[in-house]
Design brief:
This protein is an alpha/beta fold. It is built from 7 helices and 17 strands. Helix 2 packs across helix 7. The radius of gyration is 19 Å and the shape is globular.
Length: about 325
């Protein structure tokens, strides 16, 4: 990455590619500001049918003025172009793996594992902060939220949380994930957050405009612009969360929409066999807000069905 940044002079932008193996590559955009400062990495398009981030990042990048910026910006505007152009939900088509479950990885693994290794080896080393933009896949309804790593070193988690507080979304969720793009970055000592904005594979100009505020607020927070940004006082942090997964292949039928607050024991969804026999009911273990749920009828063993959390009350 030092070599790539050296090709982008101060006060300049560069659009190039990052090689993945001998024949494949992903787009890579760079900005080097007029003055020294932190390096922010922005990744989008990890999942091929989450479109808000991919639609957002181009205008955001083009609007930035390197002459007025401190530090550097590294952008992977379409991490998974194979899934994006094929309309493949959640996976990288060459091997059918979910990139957000393949960190850390090996240069000798499958295609997705090599992609994960390339990001870790080429992007992580010179990054001071990372934000991964997601947006509700075609099978996923969700309410806007930001995840920050709770399982990283204390200072990494605290810095990530501090940044998450600057994003214009209502919920902030403590996450224990370690094998995702942003989760493994945090394990490597890089403060990182994951934004979820959008749902059901949809994007609108209004969502794009809203999404642009997040990396913009982040550059302000990191001291890359000379502007200050206040914490979002209305944002609420999770106290505990549950991520229910399907125990078998079957028909998944949700009963509660994303964003709704429910009481303990409320029926959230059911899993049944083709013949209609109920495999399992899913009920809220405590009073909670629904973060997201799967909308497709057919689900396979291990698929996410519903995620919910108890959030702190605003003061």
């Amino acid at each position: 990455m030092d070599e790539l940044l050296s090709f982008c002079p101060r006060r300049q932008k560069l659009k190039t590619t990052l090689s993945v193996g001998e024949t494949e590559s992903v787009p890579l955009w760079l900005i080097r500001g007029a003055s020294a400062g932190p390096t922010l990495a922005v990744t989008t398009g990890v999942h091929g049918c989450e479109f808000v981030g991919a639609k957002t990042i181009g205008p955001f990048f083009d609007d930035l003025d390197p002459a007025a910026q401190y530090g550097s910006l590294i952008v992977l505007p379409l991490v998974n172009p194979w899934g994006f152009y094929a309309g493949a939900k959640q996976v990288v088509p060459p091997d059918g793996k979910n990139l957000n479950r393949e960190f850390p990885s090996s240069p000798d693994g499958t295609f997705t594992q090599r992609l994960a290794h390339t990001i870790e080896a080429q992007i992580y080393p010179d990054v001071d902060f990372l934000i991964d933009l997601h947006g509700g896949d075609i099978n996923e309804d969700l309410t806007p939220l930001v995840f920050f790593p709770a399982a990283a070193r204390l200072e990494v988690s605290a810095r990530s949380r501090e940044a998450a507080c600057r994003l214009p979304v209502p919920y902030r969720v403590r996450s224990s994930t370690k094998n995702s793009l942003y989760g493994w970055a945090a394990q490597r000592g890089i403060p990182a957050i994951l934004l979820e904005l959008g749902a059901l594979g949809r994007w609108t100009p209004e969502l794009v405009q809203r999404c642009q505020k997040s990396p913009r607020n982040l550059t302000d927070f990191l001291g890359m612009t000379g502007r200050a940004v206040s914490a979002n006082k209305t944002q609420r942090e999770s106290l505990r969360a549950v991520y229910d997964e399907s125990p078998a292949d079957g028909f998944g039928v949700p009963t509660i929409p994303a964003g709704q607050t429910v009481a303990a024991s409320t029926l959230l969804g059911m899993l049944s066999e083709l013949n209609g026999r109920t495999i399992q009911e899913f009920r809220a273990r405590f009073d909670a807000t629904i973060m997201y749920y799967t909308t497709t009828l057919g689900v396979k063993r291990g698929d996410s069905l519903v995620a919910y959390a108890e959030f702190e009350e605003n003061e």
